[in-house]
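User: Please predict the structure of the protein below. I'd like the answer in structure-token form so I can feed it into my own downstream comparison script.

Assistant: Understood. Taking the following sequence of 52 residues as input:
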Amino acid sequence: NENSLSIVLLCEKLFLTNVFLNDLELQQIAQFYNMNDDELRSEQRFYKVALG
């Protein structure tokens, strides 16, 4: 499914790069995984700080 592939690519960008996702990208992941946007945004900041 095309939507699933785009989510996988966004997750790779989230976890394998030091690039912050924009609001739309975060919203897409949050909706796909039924998460809260703000929680995902906080996790992203925490993860990027840990990467240094």
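That's the full token string. The chain has one domain: 2-51.
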